[in-house]
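[step 3/7] inverse_fold.run input=structure_tokens len=499
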């Protein structure tokens, strides 16, 4: 008996009859075909029978989403001649690793198919990279083990298209999501496979541009020394991990006559209950003081107007400073765009001189791909969608402001305030093997993450895994991976249509 692979997430189009798929019949729903011994008209009925499955849908999941149930043809059909190809089909649930056999009943006789069907999923990716140095191995990590893992354990075939081709895009030291879309668009050649295809981009560094308000998001407390100690200038250092948006992109630095875009408006100093305006021109970035290799500027030098200076010659006094800044709030190891079919992994993790290992890159790739494949689902919880699988026991961060709606409703915002369980990370993640405690308003993680869907790539130097934990792996196996489906978890909207 042969076991035929049935690709439940692909449509019946000839483009997908390739690389191990020999017939249109192997795509999408199950089509029946019967041979009769005589050409007398016969009433026939077909049935798909589940033999085994790796990850069954729960009753709650089937109740929420009808696609998780096997949908059989109803009624009987009449044969004409010795061959019969009924118009009806069986729509299999979208999970992988489920084995079915076919039964046909005609007259009082039931016949079983000689072959069984096993459900599979297949998705495609085009690889892009920024050429960096002399060693091309550093540009694209070896993806073989990752692709094998998806195929052997998760019933997902991830195929590179065009096969074996890696497309170079211009090098950009620091890239944002918009930059990546702009660089990839002209070299993107896989539109015919949308929406089953992703752009996988190996980039250099991915700083995150953020707005912060000193005095609101971070403390603006300052000490004004007495005049004798020279108090015409106030030195203000941004807190750890935050750096003024300077030196990341030449275009940004060139704006405002070369002053850059990091400074947003005038500042304000409050002392003895009085406010003093600090004009923009009095605020400078100290580029003689930097973090690592001449990059990362976090010290501001502020010339205080005469009246804002501490008048006392000896004693200092407390004051507070307020200012709006654009900062680089750390670097991301990689990200998947929320809607568009683009996923990126960075070569460097934190500033440009910190090279990520191959293992770290693959961990990021798996994690971000996991998000794209609908991880971690929140079904049955407050913000879980009807189409989502049941949330696993170790889900945290289920108020999902990244992969959730773009403009969260008031309901969501209120919920975040009251029940936010994101524990310092953002988005829905898996905390198996790790635990978090809040100390002085900050979440402290400990333990060893056992799942690639942990919300960070490490806890104090202990790396998260490249693989899903057992529970999450079972979820990936039964996710609906047909992006054309209105209930699918994937958002593989064309990057060509965006921005
Ligand atoms: Zn994540
Ligand atoms: Zn997990």
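[step 3/7] decode complete -> sequence:
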């Amino acid at each position: 008996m042969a076991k035929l692979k049935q690709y439940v997430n692909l449509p019946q189009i000839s483009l997908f009859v390739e690389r191990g798929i020999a017939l249109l019949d192997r795509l999408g729903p199950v089509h029946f075909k019967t041979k009769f011994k005589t050409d007398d008209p016969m009433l026939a009925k077909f049935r798909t029978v589940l033999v085994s499955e790796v990850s069954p849908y729960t009753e709650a999941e089937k109740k929420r989403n009808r696609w998780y149930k096997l949908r059989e043809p109803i009624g009987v059909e009449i044969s004409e001649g010795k061959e019969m190809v009924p118009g009806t089909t069986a729509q299999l649930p979208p999970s992988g690793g489920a084995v079915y056999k076919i039964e046909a009943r005609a007259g009082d006789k039931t016949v079983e198919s000689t072959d069984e069907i096993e459900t599979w999923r297949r998705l495609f990716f085009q690889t892009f990279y920024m050429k960096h140095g002399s060693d091309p191995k550093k540009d694209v990590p070896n993806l073989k083990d990752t692709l094998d893992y998806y195929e052997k354990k998760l019933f997902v075939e991830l195929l590179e298209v065009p096969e074996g081709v890696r497309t170079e895009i211009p090098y950009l030291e620091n890239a944002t999501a918009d930059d990546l879309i702009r660089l990839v668009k002209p070299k993107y050649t896989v539109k015919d496979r949308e929406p089953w295809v992703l752009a996988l981009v190996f980039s250099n560094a991915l700083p995150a541009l953020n707005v912060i308000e000193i005095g609101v998001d971070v403390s603006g407390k300052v000490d004004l020394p007495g005049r004798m100690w020279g108090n015409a200038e106030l030195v203000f250092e941004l807190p750890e991990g935050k750096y003024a948006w300077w030196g990341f992109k030449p275009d940004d630095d060139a704006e405002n006559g070369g002053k850059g875009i990091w400074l947003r408006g005038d500042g304000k100093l409050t002392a003895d209950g009085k406010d003093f305006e600090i004009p923009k021109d009095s605020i400078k970035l100290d580029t003689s003081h930097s973090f690592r290799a001449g990059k990362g500027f976090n010290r501001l030098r502020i010339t205080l107007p005469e009246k804002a200076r501490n008048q006392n010659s000896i004693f200092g006094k407390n004051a507070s400073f307020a200012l709006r800044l654009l900062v680089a709030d750390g670097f991301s190891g990689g990200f998947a765009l929320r809607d568009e079919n683009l996923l990126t992994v960075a070569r460097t993790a934190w500033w440009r001189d910190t090279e990520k290992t191959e293992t770290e890159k693959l961990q990021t790739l798996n994690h971000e791909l996991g998000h794209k494949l609908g991880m971690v689902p929140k079904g049955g919880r407050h913000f879980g969608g009807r189409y989502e699988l049941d949330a696993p026991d170790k889900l945290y961060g289920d108020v999902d402001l990244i992969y959730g709606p773009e403009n969260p409703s008031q309901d969501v915002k209120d919920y975040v305030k009251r029940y936010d369980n994101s524990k310092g990370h953002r988005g829905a993640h898996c905390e198996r093997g790790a635990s978090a405690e809040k100390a002085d308003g900050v979440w402290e993680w400990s333990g060893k993450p056992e799942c690639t869907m942990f919300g960070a790539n490490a806890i104090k130097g202990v790396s998260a895994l490249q693989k899903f934990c057992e529970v999450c792996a079972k979820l990936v196996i039964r996710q609906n991976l047909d992006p054309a489906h209105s209930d699918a978890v994937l958002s593989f909207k064309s990057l060509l249509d965006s921005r």
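[step 4/7] annotate
The longest helix spans residues 358-372.
Residues 367, 371, 427, 429, 455 surround zinc ion (ligand 1) (CB under 6 Å).
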